[in-house]
Design goal:
heterodimer, A: mainly alpha, 4 helices, B: alpha/beta, Rossmann fold, 2 domains, nine-stranded mixed β-sheet
Chain lengths: ~70, ~475
Amino acid sequence: MPLDKELDKTKVVFIDTCRRLMELGELSQDEYLGICDLLDRLDELDKETFDRELRRVSRGLSDLIS
Amino acid sequence: MNSSDARQSFDLPVDISAERQVLGILIKHPSQVDEVVDRLRPAHFADLGHRRIYEIILDLYHKQGRISYTQVYNRLVADGVESPADLLIALTESFVSLSELGPCVESLIRQEGLRRIIKACDSIKTLALDPSSEDLAALQARAQELIFDATQSNGGPENEVKNLLEVLSTCYLNLLRRREGLEDAYGLSVRFPSIDGMTTGFKKKDLIILAARPSMGKTALLLNMVTNVAKRGIPVLVFSLEMDAEQLGDRIVLSELFTYRQNGQPMVTSHEYQTKLSDEQFQLTQKVFNDLYSLPISIVDKRGLTVAEIRAKARRCKAENPELGLIVIDYLQLIKPPIQSNRSWSLIVGEMVRELRDLAGELDVPLILCSQLNRGVESRENKRPMMSDLRDSGNIEEFADVVMFLYRDDYYYPEVAREKGTEGLAEVIFAKQRKGATGVVQLRFVKEYTRFIEETKREVSHAAR
């Protein structure tokens, strides 16, 4: 599968995971919405900005990923 | 809602793969929504999960929101859709390139069109097998209506919203065509120059009322116009609720015989046609028959038709003859009204006229509807019809685009007409024209041949009498 399609698929899996984390109480609703917004703007951000933004939106998730 | 569970019956034609491709492309390339929004409706998606995704995309598009996997995902979650991720992951893998969008849209339109036909057939079958169904004629009319609806163009709301630039472009092209004298730039000519001069031809989608008191020559004028139109190869559909088809046929032949003359006299009189012809007259009449055989005129002469039955027959005729150029109905008061005893006659007639106007619009043809006038005319000294003479028969004039009255002075005042030399003169009074001027033109009525001919003097004044 081409890279951008793989990325779309990953986004869907990622957001699905985040929603489940929210349902489990691991993420707040604000964190979840912030992550959604970040994913929508993913194409506009370089990796460093994304990492920084993700850390700002959700410290816990950022630590989990890194 | 699970995608496969929610999917409609697989007995129906569907293209699930194309549905996924279209949705995948639209989410990945939101700018492409512009290309499909006026062609695809949610109903084009057979899979209910896909249909919901398309509705979400349209909603985001119309609210100028961002169209993305996350936005669609959250809306699906809010809708309580089960496993939204599975639905969307299938979309991410569905297409390779943008060029797939066009063929996939075509496929969805085709499948949806097929589904509509099959559903219409199912509905017809259910109706036909229902023991409590209405009478056969009503059932046939309903069946035709269902099929007609199912076979209408497949697009969604295209062409419903037109911007001024499009409208003015069409107006300007029409202007150029008229300037170049192109015939199709005008409405439908009935080959009476005085009438055509007033109307610039009857326009498509227009409802034209031709009203008069009995014996003024409504049917004669109507048939003359029908023959003139058909002689140019334009198909015409005639609903004759009073006369049978043979009577109409005889009238058309007789009317044509008037044109053959010798030493200024018609070669075959009406009486001779109705009795016995000489060999020479018979040959001439045969020639008239031969000329008329090929005219594209269809006649429905069944009495007591309802508007629904007229609509069904007209739709079928249009489907068989897409070039159908004119529908005429003789006459309004003989159309069988729906059974609604609690409504006033005026409202019922108004509703019937409105439905006939809608039919003209739907089939994109002018529709001429003959109408009787009430007796109020007789009680006045000046017996020329007026708009108010129509009002007792429902608000006919409100729905009509053109209202024409036919009036002959010699019918009421034969002595005066003889003295004034106005015998045989008929006035066509244009009391209303939505797209043109009102006024009066004159024709000459040759009663024996039920034939109207052009009168040199065109404009007359009501004040003359």
